[in-house]
Amino acid sequence: MLPVIEQAESAAGRTSAGASDGTSTPVRPGRRRSEESRLAILTAATELLGEVGYARLTVEGIAARAGTGKQTVYRWWPGKADVLLEAVTAHARQHIALPDTGDHAADLRTFLAATFAAATPPTTDALRALMAEAQIDPAFGDRFRETLLHPRREALGTLVDRARTAGLLAPQLTTATAVDLAFGALWYRLLGTRDPLDDDLAELLTRTLLLPSATSSGSADGA
Amino acid sequence: MLPVIEQAESAAGRTSAGASDGTSTPVRPGRRRSEESRLAILTAATELLGEVGYARLTVEGIAARAGTGKQTVYRWWPGKADVLLEAVTAHARQHIALPDTGDHAADLRTFLAATFAAATPPTTDALRALMAEAQIDPAFGDRFRETLLHPRREALGTLVDRARTAGLLAPQLTTATAVDLAFGALWYRLLGTRDPLDDDLAELLTRTLLLPSATSSGSADGA
Amino acid sequence: MLPVIEQAESAAGRTSAGASDGTSTPVRPGRRRSEESRLAILTAATELLGEVGYARLTVEGIAARAGTGKQTVYRWWPGKADVLLEAVTAHARQHIALPDTGDHAADLRTFLAATFAAATPPTTDALRALMAEAQIDPAFGDRFRETLLHPRREALGTLVDRARTAGLLAPQLTTATAVDLAFGALWYRLLGTRDPLDDDLAELLTRTLLLPSATSSGSADGA
Amino acid sequence: MLPVIEQAESAAGRTSAGASDGTSTPVRPGRRRSEESRLAILTAATELLGEVGYARLTVEGIAARAGTGKQTVYRWWPGKADVLLEAVTAHARQHIALPDTGDHAADLRTFLAATFAAATPPTTDALRALMAEAQIDPAFGDRFRETLLHPRREALGTLVDRARTAGLLAPQLTTATAVDLAFGALWYRLLGTRDPLDDDLAELLTRTLLLPSATSSGSADGA
DNA sequence: GCCTAACCGAGACGGTACGTCACGTCTTTGG
DNA sequence: CCAAAGACGTGACGTACCGTCTCGGTTAGGC
User: Fold this and answer.
1) How far apart are CA B188 and CA A135, in angstroms?
2) Beta carbons of B115 and B189 less than 8 angstroms apart
3) Hey, are the CB atoms on B55 and A170 less than 8 Å from each other?
4) Domain D35-76 matches domain D84-216 at the CATH topology level
């Protein structure tokens, strides 16, 4: 249950830090980036999203709420969507672990339940906005898939693959299609029906993706 | 395979109509709505969406391309998203029938395949844009769900329910969750992975939602 | 004190009525112009001007208040300014007579006082609006000068000329410049200072334009 | 002939200024107002007024001609009329001095002639438009009177008052009414007859407002 | 202990599109 | 043929944000 997925620190890059060899430590002169401003901007964006919605969320508003200049936002992020993306990925990195107990069905159920549990009101608004922006701005769409969707797919794919190797996956499914079904249900409820994402859905998905034998006695049904 | 789902003719309504009985012939005075302009706007919106993308699609641009005034767009639609919504629903109404051959598994597979076939490049752009806008503008979201998502859910729900009544549905699923899984896969591929929606996916979904016995001999595998 | 100045009946012309001889009664076919609509429009325009001001006075508003269609306004007048112009000229024609008592100084004073008296709140708003529109729309400016300013100049010019012939006019003035001074004061107060136009101003103008001898003993002071 | 009337520098004010004492040097942060844009807008407005007339003069057109954004116009002026007002007042401030030679009649004549000389084609169009707008938009009317009409009245009033104190003013006139007559003639010719404003009119007004003795020998008729 | 570089707040800049308003015209139905 | 009703193409409005470009004023090395 340990290895948390590591992701890029920030969309902006331009990191000073060098690699292991001592050759490159450019350590530029000048004032350092204000961590205070960075956090204030992430917080302001998240709060404002909840208050006014994504459509009326503006970079000007974020900067004003954060008490910074507009340029400070644009210096580090391409736009409002990337600010939210950083806020969300930071949150996801903290809360969703990749379990490995040996019980592949239970691991899958646990991971899905944790994923769904992380998709609660402060975050769901951001997720819906990000997926929307990804459709509208292709360049952001690439960053969004790269930073958020792919890592999540890989995490779930790892678990599904373990089950498949153990012969527990339903025969008509590949790892990729199983992941499609699971995240499909997640996103469809987020975007389309807005029904809640609860533990029942995690259980239902686990039983649908795996063979009956993998789940019937192994965990839920018992005896 | 007959009953095509009927939906609202237009966002505007206000038809003069009058049934066979002589009671209602309101026939207002004044110039009639220009059908020519209406079609020109729908066409222009669809074309421009393909050419410049949703972000750079503007009401001004639609009106200019259609050779109409901006006000004529705003008179009949709340914004660019609703124009696209009308264009898409008209398309969906024409192309997706609700089959009823008695073979519930085959009907389901046919319906899904037809649904996926309708989601091809001219239309996919619009669908992705509409789902995006639905996240961003809550009021449009309601209209979108009402006019597009719900009717599609009901259509698929009807087929799934027939299978469920015949005892073919996988036991852990309800009609609603089965529909969630099918449309979840559809939308997730549209929005997230952008993988193609092909007949294989229709087959895979049918086999995953229904019991093995319903599909193994009934249609694909055959005796 | 009799001869009221005759002016054009309407800016639109196209009158059917024939002269006294029976030869010309062209009596065109079709529905006749509605006198009811015409008066309703003139009344509505005057009322609305007082209520919302000239800037927010619109042809649509006039038609709506008058209970007519917009086209009925445009059929008979070029725009809102001409509607007001007709309303004002009708009013002026009724109330300002051209006196001729033999006492030229008194006639002048009487005429100016009557002119000023006619320029009271319901009418001043219209006059100011018309003069404004005349500056902005050159074509209307021509009609405005033709229909309103010139006839008024001619009326006053007649009186001044009588005084000049009698040797009462101040020697440095011509008829034209005397009229300029009188109407200049009138319009400047209307447009610029918005001070009241009272009998004192009529008296002051009379004494300034005429020789002292013409007014000191001749009429007011009296011997 | 020295003291030119000082008026507000700009509609915007908000000068950093600071008197000689070190207490007040507010020097706000942020980018400074672009003097280049300000002049380009004033020039563009004046040029376009001459080319297309006030009715077809638009803020959009001014901004386009000036090479600025529309918002930059609206940031500093309420509308097109105020742009013209600033252009005109700057012009008036430069060209009309207040003479004081001791010969009150000559001073009056000189001032009027200078005023009339400043009212030539580039400027007359603007003056007529401004007076028109002042009738149509009451709020602008207040600004117009405040910044243009009142200062001009005060300047002329000062000269007239000197003449009155010296006993040269025609007895029936007050300072205010004398000013009314002079500016009345000016504006009436501008707006109504559009006759030229020449030196003859300056002479005529001087002789009409002052006693014959003040002008007969003093300047024109002369020895 | 400067110098130089980079970041910070603030806010004006040139733009684009918004959604609204009114214009003056055109097209209906009906007197 | 006129009148009401009302949709049409048009064009400007004033606003909101966009993303960029100055400003004066901090912070930090490096020399």
Assistant:
1) 12
2) no
3) no
4) no
From B87, B93, B89, select the one nearest B57 (Cα to Cα): B87
Tokens standing for residue B26: 């309101």
User: Residue B17's pLDDT is what?
Assistant: 39
Return the CATH superfamily for domain A35-76: Homeodomain-like (1.10.10.60)
| pLDDT at B183 exceeding the cut of 60 | yes
Q: Which of residues 159-198 of B touch A (CB under 8 A)?
A: 170, 172-173, 177, 180-181, 183-189, 191-193, 195
Percent of chain D's residues with pLDDT above 90: 76
The answer to whether residue C206 scores a pLDDT higher than 50 is yes
Q: Which helix (H) or strand (E) holds A142?
A: helix A138-144
Residues in CB range of B180: below 8 A, 6 or more apart:
A185, A188, A189, A193, A195
Question: Could you say which of A135, A138, A187 has the minimum Cβ distance to residue B184?
Answer: A187
| CB-to-strand F under 7 Å, chain B 18-57 | 28-34, 37-38
Give residue-wise pLDDT tens across range C180-196.
999 999 999 999 999 99
The class that CATH gives domain C84-220 is mainly alpha
* CATH number of the domain located at residue range(s) A84-215 in this protein: 1.10.357.10
CATH topology of domain B84-216: Tetracycline Repressor; domain 2 (1.10.357)
Overall size of chain A counted in residues: 223
> Does an interface of 3+ CB pairs under 8 Å exist between A and B?
yes
- Record the tokens describing residue B152, joined without a space: 């599609």
Name the nearest CA neighbour of D82 among D154, D143, D162, D38. D143
Task: List, as ranges, residues 100-139 from B with C-beta within 8 Å of A.
Answer: 128-129, 131-138
The answer to whether the beta carbons of residues A127 and A91 sit under 8 Å apart is: no
Say whether the CB atom of A81 is under 7 angstroms from strand F: no
Identity at D59, one-letter amino acid code: V
| AA letter at B150 | H
SS (H, E, C) B122-182: HHHHHHHHHHHHHHHCHHHHHHHHHHHHHHHHHHHHHHHHHHHHCCCECCCCCHHHHHHHH
CB contact set of D74 (below 8 Å; sequence gap of 6+) = D59
Helix (H, G, I), strand (E, B) or coil at B68: coil
For residues A98 and A159, the answer to whether their CB atoms sit within 8 Å is yes
Residue C28 confidence (pLDDT)? 63
Distance CA C152, CA C146 (A): 10
| Partners of B169 in beta bridges | B210
Our CA-based measurement puts residue A31 at a distance from the nearest CA of chain B, in whole angstroms, of 37
Q: Where along chain C do its domains lie?
A: 35-76, 84-220
Q: What is the pLDDT at residue C216? A: 63
Protein CA D207 to sugar C1' E2 (Å): 75
CA distances from A128 to A125, A190, B153, B191 (A): 5, 7, 20, 11
A68-101 pLDDT, tens digit per residue, is 999 999 999 999 999 999 999 988 777 778 999 9
What are A22-51's pLDDT values in tens digits?
A: 444 467 778 889 999 999 999 999 999 999
| Nearest residue to A111 (alpha-carbon basis) of A5, A217, A223 | A5
User: What does the pLDDT look like over C20-46, one tens digit per residue?
Assistant: 444 444 566 667 778 888 999 999 999
Helices (H), ranges, chain C: 35-52, 59-66, 70-76, 80-95, 104-118, 121-136, 138-144, 150-165, 175-188, 199-209, 212-215
Measured distance CA(A90)–CA(A87) in Å, rounded: 5
Least confident of A21-30, B201-210, D116-125, D199-208: A21-30
Compute the average pLDDT of residues A192-208.
Answer: 95
Q: At CA A40, angle to CA A37 and CA A42, rounded to 5?
A: 110
**What is the pLDDT of chain C when averaged over all its residues?**
85
Q: Which of D97, D90, D94 is nearest to D158 (CA)?
A: D97
- Residue window 10-29, chain D: list those with CB within 8 Å of chain C: none
